[in-house]
Design brief:
By secondary structure, this protein is mainly alpha-helical. The chain has a single domain, classed as AhpD-like (Up-down Bundle). The chain is built from eight helices and no strands. Helix 1 packs parallel to helix 3, helix 4 runs antiparallel to helix 5 and helix 4 packs across helix 6. The longest helix has 24 residues. The radius of gyration is 20 Å and the shape is elongated. It starts with a helix and ends in a 6-residue tail after the last helix.
């Protein structure tokens, strides 16, 4: 058997089927991408699986990709994400994109921003953040 055929068999064994869209992708990318998908989506990595999927959901929301949103929400739930965690990931996606839009529309100087982030990080480091941030719990 060839590498592509072995990959297709592994996909079917792992997922219980070969999704139709995979069959429409050229063979070489399927062979190259499947091990990465299997490791970083189905396997273990440095980032716990639930958090990887919540990150994927936030990215998918910003990309406005309904396919990725559907997949990552489902995968996050399979990995134990609650409704509240799904909602928070969606909020964080919009929150990050919103501030990015604001700064880009202002043409805010990136070097100035980098310096400010450094100052903020130093200020929030260590015990200082625990003493100064009194964030109300919801």
């Amino acid at each position: 058997m060839g590498e592509y055929e072995d990959t297709i068999k592994d996909i079917e064994k792992t997922l219980g089927m070969v999704p139709g869209f995979v069959k429409d992708v050229p063979r070489e990318p399927v062979v190259q991408q499947w091990p990465l998908f299997k490791r970083y989506t189905l396997g273990e990595s440095q980032i716990p699986a639930k958090y990887r999927e919540l990150i994927g959901l936030a990215i998918a929301a910003n990309l406005k990709c309904p396919y990725s949103q559907r997949f990552h929400e489902s995968a996050a739930r399979l990995r134990g994400a609650s409704d509240q965690e799904i909602s928070e990931a969606a909020f964080l996606a919009s929150y990050t994109a919103g501030w990015s839009d604001i700064m880009q529309a202002q043409h805010y100087d990136y070097d100035t921003f980098t310096d400010e982030v450094s100052q903020i990080s130093k200020n929030l480091k260590g015990e200082h953040i625990k003493r100064t941030l009194r964030v109300p719990q919801m």
